[in-house]
Amino acid sequence: MKGYLGFFMLVAALTAYMWRDTFDPESVRGARVLITGASSGIGEQMAYHYAKFGAQIVITARRVNALKTVVQKCEKLGAQKVMYVPGDMSDPADPERVFKYAVENLGGLDFLVLNHVGNMNIELWNGDADHVRSLMQVNFVSFVQMAAAAFPVLETSGGSIIVVSSLAGKLASPFVAPYTSTKFAMNGFFGALQNELAIKKSNVSVSILILGLIDTEAAMNKIKGFNTMTAYPASEAALSIIKAGATRQKEAYYPWFHYFTCLINNIFPFGKDILLSSLSAENKE
Ligand code: NAP
């Protein structure tokens, strides 16, 4: 018994050490940052945090008016520089065009924050393969295109790619099959890249963020009528993403306990049925 207690205390101490907050806000002051999907939700909140830290920011999404509003707020919050460039990531030409705009206007890049997400409904898969294909372009292929354009630039600055993923990229989630598949693709691709960068001893880091349910307007509207998990604040999620990127963590979880959700799911695969039952069709009000 004493042996088990000692083991668990050791694991707890190691975990606390691993997750201690080593973030220095000075590390992002003046940093050149491109944030995708920043007209609303978590991307918008990231823009505000980077602005408060005095970063130089380019934001992108499709809605120009919403981008302009975010730019104005970032200026007030203390961004050294802030610009927007409209872009539609369903258009295969736009990831590179948007990236070029950011690099030319910032004079290089330190952080590429890949955060945008295409539209999807919460429903049983309806057999629409075209939707899966188009969502793959927006949620995954455009991330890869931007990363491809970014590597030579980030190698010069010793910069970072921050990839906003989801618990749905770790647990095959019913009702969001197209979305979950794009997030699995994302975790697989950028996880493989992390390993290749380690082999190459590259100075570029890739951070993958695994998020649970976050209280953005879009997410809250989608889950209306479903009995589901607690939603956590978008502003806190945004800050945890920035910290993970700045401290070059390979994988980080927000809220933190989803690390254990994934761990437990791997050890006891049947346990996920309990978690997912909260999303079951019977629970729809
Ligand atoms: P959101 O509020 O819906 O914001 C999505 C952003 O992506 C918006 O700025 C939107 O702007 C942009 N966007 C959508 N389609 C686009 C397109 N075709 N081209 C360019 N930009 C496009 O989403 P969120 O809840 O903040 O989620 C942000 C990230 O967190 C996503 O990667 C999501 O998967 C992840 N995440 C969220 C949750 C959650 O519960 N909220 C949970 C886990 C993971 P425009 O409409 O102006 O283009």
From TrEMBL:
Gene3D superfamilies reported in the protein's UniProt record: NAD(P)-binding Rossmann-like Domain (3.40.50.720)
Protein name (database record): Hydroxysteroid (11-beta) dehydrogenase 1-like b
GO molecular function: oxidoreductase activity
Cleavable signal peptide: 1-16
Keywords on record: Oxidoreductase, Signal
UniProt similarity note: Belongs to the short-chain dehydrogenases/reductases (SDR) family.
Top-level taxon of the source organism: Eukaryota
